[in-house]
Amino acid sequence: MAIERTFSIIKPDATARNLTGAVNAIIEKAGLRIVAQKRILMTRAQAETFYAVHKARPFFGELVDFMTSGPVVVQVLEGEGAILKYRDVMGATDPSKAADGTIRKVHAKSIGENSVHGSDAAETAAIEIAQFFAGNEIVG
Ligand code: CMP
User: Fold this and answer.
1) What is the DSSP code (8-state) at residue 140?
2) φ and ψ of 56, to 5 deg
């Protein structure tokens, strides 16, 4: 399988509980390499752009409020089949449906406060990475 990069966010519910290291440990144990990482406070404009695909959804306002409510850690993860692998490592969006041992099963609080985001496809990964990182900030 090809080496890929995917985009990850450790969300405010996780940073608030000091879980950055715990989440990173699960990521690294799964064989994914953190090749870029920074802790930021997302602006509303950044969150609205990032989640533009969900603009018509009833939870959009709540989602933007949550993602700007506290620090997030944005990351680029690299590895074989990284996009699908990270989705497996995260578990289902709704933590009550997530498999044992996944980040969301272990740490997430609810479908909204679900601790992590990961890209769903190669095209979105490229767009999401480019929104937050310059090429020279990613060191594989
Ligand atoms: P994420 O992978 O970041 O992409 C979109 C996010 O919308 C998703 O994770 C959830 O956190 C959030 N989301 C999805 N469904 C709901 C919902 N019903 N209520 C609130 N947030 C939701």
Assistant:
1) -
2) -85, -5
Which ligand 1 atom lies nearest to the CA of residue 11?
3
How deeply is 116 buried, as exposed, middle or buried, from its count of CB atoms within 10 A (0-12, 13-18, 19+)?
buried
Instruction: Tell me which of 6, 46, 93 to substitute to probe ligand 1's pocket, judged by most ligand atoms within 8 Å of the beta carbon.
Output: 93
Chain segment 64-81, per-residue pLDDT in tens: 999 999 999 999 999 999
Structural contact between residues 42 and 67, judged by C-beta atoms closer than 8 angstroms:
yes
Q: Where are the alpha helices (DSSP H) in the chain?
A: 12-16, 20-29, 44-50, 60-67, 82-90, 103-107, 122-132
Token pair belonging to 23 = 């989440």
pLDDT tens-place string over residues 72-111? 999 999 999 999 999 999 999 999 999 999 999 999 999 9
pTM higher than the cut 0.85: yes
Q: Is 112 in the pocket of ligand 1 (CB under 6 A)?
A: yes
